[in-house]
Each structure stands twice: as structure tokens, then as C-alpha cells.
Specification:
Blueprint: E1 16-22, H1 23-32, E2 34-37, H2 53-58, H3 63-71, H4 76-90, E3 94-101, H5 107-113, E4 119-125, H6 126-132, E5 140-144, E6 146-148, E7 169-171, E8 179-185, H7 193-202, E9 209-212, H8 215-218, E10 221-224, H9 230-242, E11 249-251, E12 283-286, E13 289-292
Parallel strand pairs: 6-7, 10-11
Antiparallel strand pairs: 1-3, 1-4, 2-9, 3-8, 4-10, 5-8, 12-13
Amino acid sequence: MYQSHPFLTTPPDEAKLWRYMDLSQFIYLLNESCLYFSELRQFNDKWEGAFPKAINERMKNDEYYKSILRNTNDNHAQAQDFSLSSFKQQQHFYGINCWHMNEVESVAMWKLYTSGIDGVAIQTTVGRLKASLALEPRDLFIAEVQYIDHEAEQLSEPIKADILTPIIIKRRSYRHEQEVRVILDRRPTDDSRPAVELGMMLGIGHCGEPLLVDITKLIENIVVAEKFPPWTIRSLQNVVNANEIQVEIEKSDLLKTPYNDADPRSKSTDGSTLVPTPTHPGYERLGKRIVRKRN
């Protein structure tokens, strides 16, 4: 279930979120009613989970770090390695599901996260996302990602040295993603806690996991790629309807040619389609075609 967190910045409930995927992933979402939560180590960016330089320096004033330092006979290198490795191990306790925040579709996201003609995008809002997570008894947080300079000596952003810090920061080169992350707190609370925690910290037997969600509350709009085969949309709509999702599938028009028959600029005053006339003396009209003049 969604919980607020004093350390995290959650967008307003009306903020629009998008998730781009291939058709196979969309079918999985419909059939299983599950969102997949990954661990940081599953992401391609090797900087995922890394503390920025400024926070590494700030951590040296932390009481936890000072206690480690005392146990290492004031060896700062060993103390820092131990402290950072401890934070790294604890990251296995959290699962992450990623969304793109935008009022409209994104050409970049279509290209980055779908493989071509069978791409699908679902659109929700932060409020609907919260409601869809109500089936899960464990705590879930929703947070905007902060984009920072990891190499900077000082940070202008008010970022704390918290276990969640590496989960909600990325390098500035990823700013175009406008990412919002759902964070699943997987720390065990029952009698199995010691064994489960040890396994998670060592990365043994734990990775990502699917999480049951209410897809009827989650999905507000469904958009398919511009070149999605028209004959498959009806079949896909039947699958959507069978899952009691009352949403009409739309087709993306992001890559539509601007001067087409539906564009008023391509119409004459009487409503007929305008055909461009050749301006080069070497061309002439042949029926509906413009061809090069014969010598």
C-alpha cells in the first residue's frame, strides 16, 4: 500500500505518468495484473545505486561512520569502504518500478523503450497509481528522481545521506526521462527476518519480483505505436475489454505527416485536396503524378 515518506518528493495526484513497453509486456500486464519491480543491480546504468561525491564526504560526519572509523583504528579508507558496502547491500531490500512523467506522449520514450511497430504506452496518474497499489500489504513509496552532478564537490539540491538516496538520484544526462519511481520496501517483518535479510544483503536468491496491482484503477489511457498493425487493434481491444478495462485504444499521432488529407492546410476553399504544381521547368503533370519532362 502506498505510504508517504518525509525524505521523498511525490508528484501531485493529478500528474500524468506514462509507461512504454512492447506488446508482449502489455499482454503480461493484462493477463497477470502485475507490475515488475527490479533491483538497482538489474539496470544498465552502472551509476545506479552510487552515492555522489559530495554525500560521500558528508557521510564522514555521520555517527554511524564515526563508529565504524573507531573499529578500524581510524583508517578512513577502510571505514568508507565498509560504510558504502553496507549501504549497497541494503539496496537489495528495495524493488523499483519506473514511470515517465509528462502531460503528453514522448517521442524519445517511444524510441527508447519500445522495439518498433508493436509498442504500447499506458497512461495513468499518480492518484490512480496509488489506488492500484492498495492490494499490496507492504509499504510502497512514489518519488520523483533527482538529476545531479555526481562529481560535484557540493550539491545545490537538498539531498540527504539516506538509504533511499541512491534509488532516487541519477546523472544529469538522464534528465530527459523525467522519471518517477515506485519503491517497494521488501524488508521482512516476520520470524524469517534474519535469514531473509542476510540473503538479500548478500544478493542470494533475490532479484526483481512481480507485484499484483488493480489494473482497472491503474490504466487511464492506452496508446499504440503509430505503425501498429490496424488489423490487430480490434483483437487487442477485445483483450482489454475482457479484463474489464473500459478504455478505448488510441493510435499515436506523434509521427504523423503534417501535410496530409486531414490537415486543413492541404485543402482548397471548396474542400478538395490541393495538389502541388511543379515549379521547376523540367517537370510536368501526367494525370495525378508529377514527372520529369521528356526531351
